[in-house]
């Protein structure tokens, strides 16, 4: 059974940073591209970042380019998202998903998410 468990969310002030983690189990993590997505209240899901299987290539949405960094540790079956210079518009439920591309498709599995709130 594919399991993806996010952690690291919380409430921060604008301009601050957070680091999210996604612990994977139940599948060969190192054989899949992985993604981070988010969904803000009242809005549809938004693709944020994708990382290829060895971490050699990453792709970011324009909304987070230069502020968010996706990475992975295949030995630990863990995906990460470092978020800097957070803005109130970044407030959302953040979740990871198995599979690549620049898509919000989660047919291969997703986690329950971790809440990030950016507020002064």
Q: What is the string of SSEs from the N terminus onward?
A: EEEEEEEEEE
Tell me the helix content: under 10%
Q: Spans of 5+ residues with little confidence (pLDDT < 50)?
A: none
Largest sheet: 6 strands, mixed
> Please, what is the average pLDDT?
97
Strand content: over 45%
Measured distance between first and last alpha carbons: 40 Å
| CA gyration radius, whole angstroms | 13 Å
Quantity of strands, as a count:
10
Secondary structural class: mainly beta
Quaternary: single chain
- Tally of separate helices: 0
Identify the overall geometry: globular
Strand order of the largest sheet: 2-10-9-4-5-6
From the structure above, extract its key features.
globular; single chain; 120 residues; 10 strands
Task: Describe the 3D structure.
This protein is an all-beta fold and 120 residues long. It has no helices and 10 strands. It has strands at residues 3-7, 10-12, 18-25, 34-39, 45-51, 58-60, 68-73, 78-83, 92-98, 114-118. The protein has a 6-stranded mixed β-sheet with strand order 2-10-9-4-5-6, with no helix packed on it. A 4-stranded antiparallel β-sheet has the order 1-3-8-7, with no helix packed on it. The model has no long low-confidence stretch (mean pLDDT 97).
């Amino acid at each position: 059974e594919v399991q993806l468990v996010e952690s690291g969310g919380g409430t921060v002030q604008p301009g601050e940073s957070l680091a999210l983690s996604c612990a994977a189990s139940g599948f060969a993590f190192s054989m899949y591209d992985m993604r981070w997505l988010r969904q803000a209240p009242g809005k549809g899901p938004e693709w944020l970042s994708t990382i290829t299987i060895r971490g050699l290539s990453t792709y970011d949405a324009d909304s987070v380019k230069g502020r968010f960094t996706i990475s992975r540790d295949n030995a630990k079956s863990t995906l990460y998202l470092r978020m800097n210079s957070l803005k109130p518009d970044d407030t959302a439920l953040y979740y990871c998903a198995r599979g690549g591309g620049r898509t919000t498709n989660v047919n291969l599995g997703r986690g329950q998410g971790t809440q990030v709130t950016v507020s002064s």
